[in-house]
Amino acid sequence: MENSNNHLDVEKKSERSETVDLNDNTLQVDISDALSEREKVKFTVHTKTTLKDFAKQDFSVVRQHEEFIWLHDRFEENESYAGYIIPPPPPRPDFDSSREKLQKLGEGEGSMTAEEFKKMKQELEAEYLATFKKTVAMHEVFLCRLANHPIFRADTNFRVFLEYEQDLSVRGKNKKEKLETFLRSFSKTTDEILLGSTQKDVDEFFDKEKSFLLDYHSLLKDATLRADKMTKAHKDVADHYIKISSCLLEMATADTNQLERFATKTADIFEKARKIENRVSTDEDLKLSDTLRYYMRDTTAAKNLLYRRLRCLADYEGANRALEKARAKNKDVHAAEWSQHQACEKFEQMSAKGKEELIDFKVRRVAAIKKNLVELCELELKHANVTTPFTFSLKSF
Amino acid sequence: MADDRHAPKLDDEFNDDDLFASAIEIKVEAKADISLEDDRSNGLSPIEEQSHNLSAADEIDLNSDSEYKDGVPDTKAKIELRSEPEDIFEDIPEPKEVHRETMAGRSTLETLVTSPRTQSCNAYHAGTMIEEEKVITAESDGKFITISVKDPQKIGDGISSFLTYNVVTHTNIGLFKKTEMTVSRRFSDFLGLHDKLAEKYLHKGRLVPAPPEKNVVGTTKVKMAGGQTEHEGKLPEFVERRRAALERYLIRIAIHPIFQVDPDFREFLECEDELPRASNTSALSGAGVLRLFNRMGETVTKIAFKMGESDPWFEERHQQLETLESQFRRLQASLEGLYSHRRELAFATAALGKGLALLSNGEDHAGLSRALAKMAELHDKLEGVHNDQSNADFYILHELIKDYLSLLGVVKDVFHERVKAFQTWQHAQQMLAKKREAVDRWEATGRSDKVAPAKDEVLEWEAKVNRSQEEFDVISKAIKKELELFDLQRVKDFKAAFISYLEAQMKAQDKIIEHWETYMPEAKAIA
């Protein structure tokens, strides 16, 4: 897997972009291709647009994961977007676990039969492919949300991201910068907690939302972890089927009587059962775990919004106090007034937008979870229904 | 007296292939080895006596190795001779026919063999672990024997406590006193039975099934468990496994045509009193230590002595069995892995269920909350299904493989007995040669007084050589028969086990389908 190039077909992309509805076609973004090279994944971002602002109608650029993160950070830092929920950035493409497993498999090659080895290798390759597809999907969803948001799509950084044909030369943060970011996030968290406990919100809606989101977030995190454990256990079970089926096959070849045919057939059944179990586990993973995970991240983004708003409120109140003081001292009244006015405006704007966003968030969340649950249900039924006929055939022996 | 009683009615009217031919010979020879039992109930002796009286040439001597009550005058026994019903005769030819009827006979045996596995399977569907009505029949020609082991009960308290099991037998084999009996036995009784059978048959080349293993940790836990003796739920899992294993053990004995009619076995099933404590089965007793030494010695000889194999059949078989054993071990390891992973899966599913329940509580959208709550319930149910499935994995398949591994061990032992017989034979031949030399020497030196005893010795050793050669042949033939039986049995058992396992899987899948189907409308109903 070190030097493998994985090209995904263009057709496949249709199954990936599901979570976001394109409500108008003036700007369509998708990831048409992806290449995996050593440590890096290169995404081909393809844009189709009818908007006049762009130089061309239809164009593609190659982007790496770091550039996606850069884009996200630009949005996050932008003050004028403070009232919006910034879509969570896609997670880093992580092939470490697959790589580890492959290594272990290679080491253990001597202890299993050629067939078993081949099958396990196949399994691993399938797993790798699945991880790959997932990461592409995540990146695509991120872009699509930006493209569909009426305000975000007009952002210059976004445009640059889509259009600029050269490398954006976003170097990964070096140590110093990483440390900076870490410290900044640390201070932000403490601030958040402090604010959360001291600052009282004027608006009840936001207050409720805040407490709800905090709880919800932790619950989601918990559920995600458990769902992950479950899918992993499922996978393990499926893997063991391979071993058993190969054992049986061996026994069958060594046995000279009627048990041979029987054992072969049984081995076959275990094999098929394995494939199905595997599929079940990947589906579960996709529908349930991933949904939960995504919404967990989204909730974080919503929490960020609330935090910013709270910060803004604090600033506003600070400005108010400053104004009063200024009025009392009768100094710099005008400046204080003006800053207060600014703060006030900012705050109002933020509240209004924020409210919209949060409501929207809720609707989106419910719809997505529902959709995924229904699909999960259907898939489970489909798989369970497939296994039954196999076992029937065995009884004929 | 003993010699009178069984006027050997054995002729060579038994054709070679008769399983029972050898059985009869064995009985006659083994008679000397059999220890007299103390508590023979009255009822048994008449049957034994009476069968002795049969004019039918076959198999009477089954019972001629009768166990007498100490000091019971034979007059009493003789009187009872005439009064028995004639139908006892029917039973006797039966064993022979078992074998004659090749496939037909075997097929009846076959169908019933499936039961052990399906029964274990049914256990899971019934849900309870401990008390199960398990019925196994070994049948031939309308005669059957059904054995079940149930109701483990703890008797006594503390270090001297032990578990007893009820052994319920239904049979219409006439050799048994009654058609239905229930006796209470403890684990050491089972081990005692095995010892007796092994003593009698192992060196004749018969495969005596191995009893379940001892389990010090489990037993101590049960002993130390506090007051509640009757609480089924308190008895640990190991008790259930042992109970099932004991049942399979008895069934395997019952299926074997020779062991089925063995008097020790019958006594085990019938005798209502407590059997004399087979205290020499305990690990720490004098006999136990002796056994240990014997086993060490045997291991050394196994390694040291390489028998010149004259029969390629044995060589081939030996190889085959070795490969089979290693395959079984691999399969067992994988099954254990499967079992533990599925347990994990069940666990994780339950955890997810709880997580979802919490989530649903925290969710403020009513519809979604309800759907999530339902999903949590669903996952709880799924956990139950997975648990059941893992139990099936374990009990049906894993125990089967374990049993077969121990059976393979017995087969190896039996092979070794053959090797020992060969050794004896060789040894006897060597001694004979030496004695002959001695005779020649004495004759050459003209010591006529030494010649006569030397010649006697030669005769004696000649007889020994013949005898040991015969034994060797006997054991070889017996082994061949036994292995055939073993193979057939193995095929049957495996087929049955896998079929019932897959059936269990299917049922599990059905349940899963059911659960998801009930959930589906909920998911769709989210507003």
TrEMBL record, chain A:
Residues 8-19 have a biased composition (Basic and acidic residues). The keyword Transport applies. One of its GO terms (cellular component) is endosome. Gene3D superfamilies: Arfaptin homology (AH) domain/BAR domain, Phox-like domain. Residues 1-21 are annotated as: Disordered. GO terms for molecular function: phosphatidylinositol binding. Keywords: Protein transport, Transport. PROSITE patterns: PX. It comes from the Eukaryota. InterPro entries: AH/BAR_dom_sf, PX_dom, PX_dom_sf, SNX5/SNX6/SNX32, Vps5_C. One of its GO terms (biological process) is phagosome-lysosome fusion involved in apoptotic cell clearance. Belongs to the sorting nexin family. Involved in several stages of intracellular trafficking. This is Sorting nexin. It comes from Daphnia magna. The gene is EOG090X05NC.
TrEMBL record, chain B:
This is PX domain-containing protein. Residues 37-71 are annotated as: Disordered. It comes from Daphnia magna. SUPFAM superfamilies: BAR/IMD domain-like (SSF103657), PX domain (SSF64268). SMART domains: PX. Transmembrane segments: none annotated. Belongs to the sorting nexin family. It comes from the Eukaryota. Gene3D superfamilies: Arfaptin homology (AH) domain/BAR domain, Phox-like domain. Pfam families: PX, Vps5. CDD domains: BAR_SNX1_2, PX_SNX1_2_like. Residues 143-275 form the PX domain. InterPro entries: AH/BAR_dom_sf, PX_dom, PX_dom_sf, Vps5_C.
